[in-house]
C-alpha cells in the first residue's frame, strides 16, 4: 500500500516563528508553567487543541463571502439548518456560538439540584455546565476504557450494566438525559460502537430518558465504526453518521471540531416543548434563532464543512495521521492510550513518569518539558483538569493522568508530525530527570485554564 497523502494542496500559509530553548524556558516560567498562558506566537507546533484550529477549504472561504447577514431568516441559516438536518435528522436545529453554549442552554433548562446526568465520559465544559446548576454528572465508561495499555476497538463505550444500576439508584424521574460523547475526548479520543449506541438507547427508552449525543467528533467516530464494526465496511460514512444520530433524541455540537470551522455549534432536538424553551433562552444569551451566536458567514462555513467532513479520503488521512504519530512514539517505548484515538494521541503520564505521584501532576511535567524541548504545546488531561479535593483539602486524583497531543485538522504535514515524534522521544529518553509541580494559584472551576504552577 502506498503512503496515505494529505488529500489537499496548500494555497495559503501561516509562518511559524522559531524560538530557542532558552527563550522557551523563560516564556514558560513567565506563564506560570501553564501553556494556556503562552502567546501562540511563541509556539512552534500547537497541539493544545483540535478545536477551532482547522484550516478551512477554499469552498468554505467562498462561503464566508456568500454569508447572508440578515438578522432574521438569513439564507445562510437555511443552508446551515439543512446541512445539520441531513446528518442528525432532528427537527429543531438551533445555532450557537460553540459547544458549551449549547450545553449551557440545555442543562440550565434540564438541570438543577437533585438531578443526575450520565455519560460515557463528560467533557470538562459539559460537566461544569451540569454541576453549575447543582445537578450531578456521572461517568459510566466501560472497564476497558479505563486501562490505557489495553487495546480494544471501542474503548469509548458506556458500561450498560453500570447505566442500569445508575438509573435504579438515582431514579429515572431524576435523570433528565443520558449523553454519549462521540468520540470520547476525555478518555483518549476513543470511539463508541453502533451496538453500544443502540444498547444505551434501548435502556434509555425503557426508562423514558432521552439520549443525546455530544457530537463534536461524530465523523471520526463513524469512520472508526466503518473500519472496526461488523457490517459497516461497505456503508458510506454519511449513512453511518445518520444511523448514529437516529438513535439519539438530540445533540449538542461544537462545530469547531468535526464541522471544520473556527467558531460555531448547535443544539439539535425533536422535543417541541424543550425546543421552545431552548430557543427562548437562546434569544436571551446567544441571539435570534436563525443566527444563534454566529454571523451568517459562519453558518455558511459550517454547512460547507459538514459536506467535507464525511469525505472518506479526508477521514482516512485524518485517522491515519493520528495513528502515525501514535505508532512512531509507541515504537520508541512511549506509553500512550492504545490504540491511538481519532483526534489526538494521549501520553500515559503515570507510566511515563512513575516516580512523579498524582499530587505532583506528572502530566503537567511532561507538558512543560515538551514545550521547552521543542516548542510543542499540549495539554494535561489528568489531575490538573479533573482533580478534586476532599474535606481535608487532599487531592482526589483523576482516573487517568494523560497528556493530550491534539491534532488540528488539515493544518500540519507529515514532517511536522515527524518533528513532534522526535521531541516526544527525546523527552522520554531523559524522563528520569523530570520533576513534579505544585499549584500556586487556581480558580474554583475549570482551574486548568488559569492555574499557575511551581516546579518541585
Ligand atoms: N464536548 C466535547 C467532547 C469537547 O471536546 C468540547 C470541546 C466541548 C464539548 C465544548 O465545545 O469548546 O466549542 O465549547 N473541546 C475542546 C478540546 C475545547 O480542546 O477538547 P466548545
Outline the structure in words:
By secondary structure, this protein is α/β, with parallel strands linked by helices. It folds into two domains: 21-50 and 311-455, Alpha-Beta Complex (Aspartate Aminotransferase, domain 1); 58-308, Aspartate Aminotransferase, domain 2 (3-Layer(aba) Sandwich). The protein is 40% helix and 14% strand. It contains 16 helices and 16 strands. The protein has helices at 21-30, 58-66, 75-88, 99-110, 124-131, 160-170, 194-206, 218-228, 237-246, 272-285, 296-309, 312-331, 349-352, 362-374, 383-386, 414-429, and strands spanning 45-46, 92-96, 116-119, 136-139, 177-181, 211-214, 250-254, 265-269, 344-348, 376-377, 379-381, 388-389, 395-396, 402-406, 437-441, 452-455. The strands form five sheets. It has a seven-stranded mixed sheet, with helices on both faces. Helix 7 links the parallel strand 5 and strand 6. The longest helix is centred in the last third of the chain and has 20 residues, at 312-331. The chain starts with 20 loop residues before the first helix and ends with a strand. The structure holds ligand F0G.
Amino acid at each position: 500500500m502506498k503512503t496515505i497523502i494529505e488529500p489537499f494542496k496548500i494555497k495559503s500559509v501561516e509562518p511559524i516563528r522559531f524560538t530557542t530553548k532558552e527563550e522557551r524556558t523563560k516564556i514558560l516560567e513567565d506563564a506560570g508553567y501553564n501553556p494556556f498562558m503562552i502567546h501562540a506566537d511563541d509556539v512552534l507546533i500547537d497541539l493544545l487543541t483540535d478545536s477551532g484550529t482547522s484550516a478551512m477549504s477554499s469552498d468554505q472561504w467562498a462561503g464566508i463571502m456568500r454569508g447572508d447577514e440578515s438578522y432574521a431568516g438569513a439564507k445562510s441559516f437555511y443552508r446551515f439548518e439543512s446541512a445539520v438536518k441531513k446528518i442528525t435528522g432532528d427537527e429543531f436545529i438551533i445555532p450557537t456560538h460553540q459547544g458549551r453554549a449549547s450545553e449551557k442552554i440545555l442543562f440550565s433548562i434540564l438541570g438543577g439540584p437533585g438531578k443526575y446526568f450520565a455519560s460515557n465520559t463528560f467533557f470538562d465544559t459539559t460537566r461544569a455546565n451540569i454541576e453549575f446548576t447543582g445537578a450531578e454528572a456521572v461517568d459510566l465508561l466501560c472497564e476497558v476504557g479505563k486501562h490505557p495499555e489495553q487495546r480494544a476497538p471501542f474503548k469509548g463505550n458506556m458500561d450498560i450494566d453500570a447505566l442500569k444500576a445508575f438509573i435504579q439508584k438515582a431514579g429515572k424521574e431524576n435523570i433528565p438525559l443520558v449523553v454519549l460523547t462521540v468520540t470520547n475526548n476525555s478518555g483518549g479520543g476513543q470511539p463508541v460502537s453502533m451496538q453500544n449506541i443502540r444498547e444505551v438507547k434501548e435502556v434509555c427508552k425503557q426508562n423514558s430518558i432521552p439520549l443525546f449525543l455530544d457530537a463534536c467528533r461524530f465523523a471520526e467516530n463513524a469512520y472508526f465504526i466503518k473500519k472496526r464494526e461488523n457490517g459497516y465496511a461497505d456503508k458510506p460514512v454519511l449513512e453511518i453518521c445518520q444511523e448514529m444520530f437516529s438513535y439519539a433524541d438530540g445533540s449538542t455540537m461544537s462545530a469547531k471540531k468535526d464541522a471544520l470551522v473556527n467558531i460555531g455549534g448547535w443544539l439539535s432536538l425533536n422535543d417541541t416543548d424543550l425546543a421552545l424553551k431552548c430557543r427562548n433562552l437562546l434569544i436571551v444569551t446567544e441571539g435570534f434563532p436563525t443566527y444563534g451566536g454566529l454571523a451568517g458567514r459562519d453558518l455558511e462555513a459550517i454547512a460547507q464543512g459538514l459536506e467535507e467532513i464525511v469525505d472518506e479520503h479526508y477521514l482516512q488521512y485524518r485517522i491515519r495521521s493520528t495513528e502515525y504519530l501514535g505508532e512512531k512514539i509507541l515504537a520508541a517505548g512511549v506509553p500512550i492510550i492504545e490504540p491511538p484515538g481519532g483526534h489526538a494521541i494521549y501520553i500515559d503520564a503515570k507510566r511515563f513518569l512513575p516516580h512523579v505521584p498524582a499530587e505532583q501532576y506528572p502530566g503537567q511535567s511532561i507538558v512543560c518539558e515538551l514545550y521547552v524541548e521543542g516548542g510543542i504545546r499540549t495539554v494535561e488531561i489528568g489531575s490538573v483538569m479533573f482533580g478534586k479535593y476532599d474535606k481535608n483539602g487532599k487531592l482526589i486524583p483523576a482516573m487517568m493522568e494523560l497528556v493530550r497531543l491534539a491534532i488540528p485538522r488539515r493544518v500540519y504535514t507529515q514532517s511536522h508530525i515527524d518533528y513532534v515524534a522526535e521531541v516526544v522521544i527525546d523527552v522520554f529518553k531523559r524522563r528520569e530527570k523530570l520533576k513534579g509541580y505544585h499549584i500556586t494559584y487556581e480558580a474554583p472551576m475549570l482551574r486548568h485554564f488559569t492555574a499557575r504552577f511551581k516546579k518541585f
